[in-house]
Design a protein that fits this description.
With 110 residues, the chain is α+β, with helices and mostly antiparallel strands. It has two helices and seven strands; from the N terminus they run H-H-E-E-E-E-E-E-E. A four-stranded antiparallel β-sheet has the order 3-6-5-4, covered by helices on one side. A three-stranded antiparallel β-sheet has the order 1-2-7.
């Protein structure tokens, strides 16, 4: 401690925004997977069936299909499955930490 030198030139990461954490169904599977890896523990934000969800457990599966990106494939009590370019996104509903109607959210322009 007595020989410590003052540090300089440090920097900080910018504060993450909701837009940074948003899963955009029109993006490809690799882009979506990158957002999930970056923010999964904090929660990713996604728009599903007229609602905005903050979710901590999301997985992806790589597969070919003919569905349009953003198509809701399945939505039951436990999981929600969304088609994206190059595969599917599986949202585990038990990990939803927040949800609101899209019109009530700050993402209403998305």
């Amino acid at each position: 401690y007595h020989n410590a030198l003052k540090q300089s030139g440090g920097s900080y990461w910018p504060k993450m925004t909701l837009q940074d954490r948003l899963l955009n169904w029109k993006k490809g599977l690799d882009d979506i997977q990158q957002v999930i890896r970056a923010f999964g523990r904090f929660g990713v934000v996604c728009c599903v069936d007229g609602e905005v969800w903050d979710v901590n457990h999301v997985e992806v599966g790589r597969m070919q299909h003919l569905l349009d990106p953003g198509t809701l494939i399945s939505n039951d009590h436990d999981i929600c499955v969304i088609a994206v370019s190059g595969g599917i996104v599986v949202i585990f509903k038990g990990s939803i930490t927040e949800r609101c109607k899209l019109s009530e959210s700050v993402l209403s322009g998305v």
